From TrEMBL:
This is SLA1 homology domain-containing protein. It comes from the Bacteria. InterPro entries: SHD1 (IPR007131). Residues 20-70 form the SLA1 homology domain.
Length: 236
């Protein structure tokens, strides 16, 4: 019953061809190698390698094939993040830490489409800073959490970051420290396929596998590989 309910929104969907043919299995055990064409009015249209379109009733399709169709039609998502800040200025002008900025971020995933989608999704939230007077990035925070879009349309999921402290200080007459640079949000489905992302710097998304391996608080270069501070040098 749940599968049928989820497919109500798909019945009026426009046809969408999948690039690769696959083997479809019917409930009676018969198989068919074909490309998915569309699902309209409770009928699944499949095209064979000879170009013949075969229409199969939805109720005759296996649960695995129905899930494949649902996952291949992900929801339309809007990704954003909000930021609140609070600054602390140290009273002692001779202090090595003249000021600190406390930042709180919240990642927001909004469903724009009205079609129900009842499969688990995963949100990854990267908060990135940069050196002041340097050219390296800093992974300020990384969060990862599974979620489901709530029943009904236009549901919202939020994921807060930890409180991030960015400090500015003077060293050898030069103002140094950390600045906020931007964020990246990545949403994947239960297969691990990316269905939506938003990044201040597309290099972060290109090299996301490197970024996923980086410990929070460490610096990285344009390829998202571990890097040393520009100067002065720090030793770990």
């Amino acid at each position: 019953m749940k599968i049928s309910f989820l497919l109500i929104g798909l019945l009026l969907a426009c046809s969408a061809a999948f690039a690769e043919p696959r083997v479809w299995t019917l409930k009676n055990g018969k198989t068919l190698e074909a490309e998915f064409v569309s699902m309209i009015g409770g009928k699944v249209s499949l095209k064979t390698d000879r170009g013949k379109v075969i229409k199969v009733p939805e109720e005759d399709m296996s649960a695995e094939d129905i899930t494949y169709i649902e996952l291949s039609s992900p929801p339309d998502l809007d990704l954003s993040a909000s930021r609140t800040t609070k600054q602390r200025v140290f009273a002692d002008s001779l202090s090595e830490l003249p000021s600190a900025m406390y930042n709180d971020f919240t990642a927001v995933v909004k469903q724009k489409s009205t079609r129900p989608y009842n499969h688990e999704l995963t949100l990854e939230f990267f908060v990135v800073g940069e050196e002041k007077a340097g050219d390296k990035f800093i992974l300020l925070d990384y969060k990862k959490e599974n979620f489901r879009l709530s029943d009904g349309s236009r549901s919202v999921f939020e994921l807060p970051s930890k409180t991030i402290e960015l400090i500015e200080f003077e060293m050898n007459g030069q103002l140094r420290g950390e600045l906020y640079e931007g964020y990246m949000l990545v949403v994947t489905d239960s297969r691990g396929e990316v269905i939506a992302h938003r990044a201040k710097n597309e290099d972060w998304f290109t090299h996301i596998e490197n970024l996923r391996k980086l410990p929070v608080g460490k610096m990285f270069d344009d390829n998202c590989e571990r890097a040393w501070p520009t100067r002065p040098k720090r030793f770990y």
